[in-house]
Amino acid sequence: MESNSGDHAENGRHDDGPSLKKPKPSLLPITAAEIRSEFAHHDPAVARINNGSFGCCPSSVFAAQYQWQLLFIRQPDHFYINLLQPSILRSRLLVKDLINADDVDEVSLVDNATTAAAIVLQQISWAFFQGSFSKGDAVVMLHYAYGSVKKSIHAYVSRAGGHVIEVPLPFPVSSDDEIIDEFRKALAFGKSNGRRVRLAVIDHITSMPSVVIPVKELTRICREEGVDQVFIDAAHAIGNVEIDVKDIGADFYTSNLHKWFFCPPAVAFLYSRKCTASADLHHPVVSDRYGRGLPLESGWIGTRDYSAQLVVSSAVEFVNRFEGGIDGIRKSNHEKVVEMGNMLAEAWGTYTGSPPEMCCSMIMVGMPGCLGVASSDDALKLRTHLRDNFQVEVPIYYNPPKAFEEQANDSVSLVTGFARISHQVYNTVEDYYRFRDAINKLVHDGFTCRMLSS
Ligand SMILES: Cc1ncc(COP(=O)(O)O)c(C=O)c1O
């Protein structure tokens, strides 16, 4: 690889590559048969009601990705010199419009939300080491932050001398105000003893349990309270909830395109607000593009497969085949997942973990207490049991009972296990009926998690 790798590419031609034409909305909405065919590669034996974990990629987008991979291996030098950078730029322009960013330079493409978190946290770590932040200054995150993001915060912040504060969140939760109250208390604690809160990491949609967080309101509170930077971990958001980064007003916002936006694994965007002057953002994998701005640094991190980053226009073409495009998909997924969540809760005599307005295309459904989910380990074992014996793929969350709940309820009526069900365009009502019937059978057979060996 030449030492000036990437330099020629920015002057490359724009008239080549499989998906460089502007995606046009199709006239006829996609049919049910076409949807089945787009997802015919899914294992037909499995009721996959877990789009949230790994997303999905229709075969038309896969086909476009393969064309990009072929272009690369067919004539790598031409691909590298003429195609790669203009094609990444085209994807970034599409993302910019989808999230209402001001400028394409605010949008970088990276592998995933985990990488985006490392980029944001790395500059926080340097600010501690370089003395711009004082030892003991705080970083605030939600108790339900995603595991690897939590670990990253500790790796980058605690080791650099920062103090990490977790915001406890109620679950089940019934209103935004419950979250806002806890957040305000955590910020007040963060600012006690003369400390500064340097960063707030806020999920847009928490992973487990899944709840839509009022990010705009929390960002506004951060501004009022003098928090230096706000990073929204919105790994699940694009294609799932509406995103307007200007309206939200955070400094950084990341979302995976491979979860709910039909791109193959792995591609995410990281938005960084232009006016966030203090940010010293760099990709953790350094190439000769270091120092030329995050979008260009991220566009070349060594020889690898960049094809997932190049099919955003194909994903846009796919969503435009649905009535209302991605907004129509979001709305329909939301309505259906709420309907299915209510159907399951009713069948099992339980309840959902939050009201519909705090759900996206995922909802938490309480499972019968008699299943005896008594730990996170039990939840994992029950998930495996459902996969192995009923071909249902669904994540399960253990919600430890509060002391007063234990006193007021017997263990059979206490709901401690919640299933996180997703709805995506390929799901059918039979997927949820299979889950309902599997749980009903376990209950009927007197099953409890104690029966599962570790
Ligand atoms: C809230 C949240 N943040 C970060 C991630 C990490 O995403 P990835 O594994 O694509 O980096 C996830 C994954 O589910 C998530 O739910």
TrEMBL record:
<protein>
    <recommendedName>
        <fullName>Aminotransferase class V domain-containing protein</fullName>
    </recommendedName>
</protein>
<dbReference type="Pfam" id="PF00266">
    <property type="entry name" value="Aminotran_5"/>
</dbReference>
<feature type="domain" description="Aminotransferase class V">
    <location>
        <begin position="91"/>
        <end position="274"/>
    </location>
</feature>
<dbReference type="InterPro" id="IPR000192">
    <property type="entry name" value="Aminotrans_V_dom"/>
</dbReference>
<dbReference type="InterPro" id="IPR015424">
    <property type="entry name" value="PyrdxlP-dep_Trfase"/>
</dbReference>
<feature type="region of interest" description="Disordered">
    <location>
        <begin position="1"/>
        <end position="25"/>
    </location>
</feature>
<dbReference type="InterPro" id="IPR015421">
    <property type="entry name" value="PyrdxlP-dep_Trfase_major"/>
</dbReference>
<keyword id="KW-0663">Pyridoxal phosphate</keyword>
<feature type="compositionally biased region" description="Basic and acidic residues">
    <location>
        <begin position="1"/>
        <end position="19"/>
    </location>
</feature>
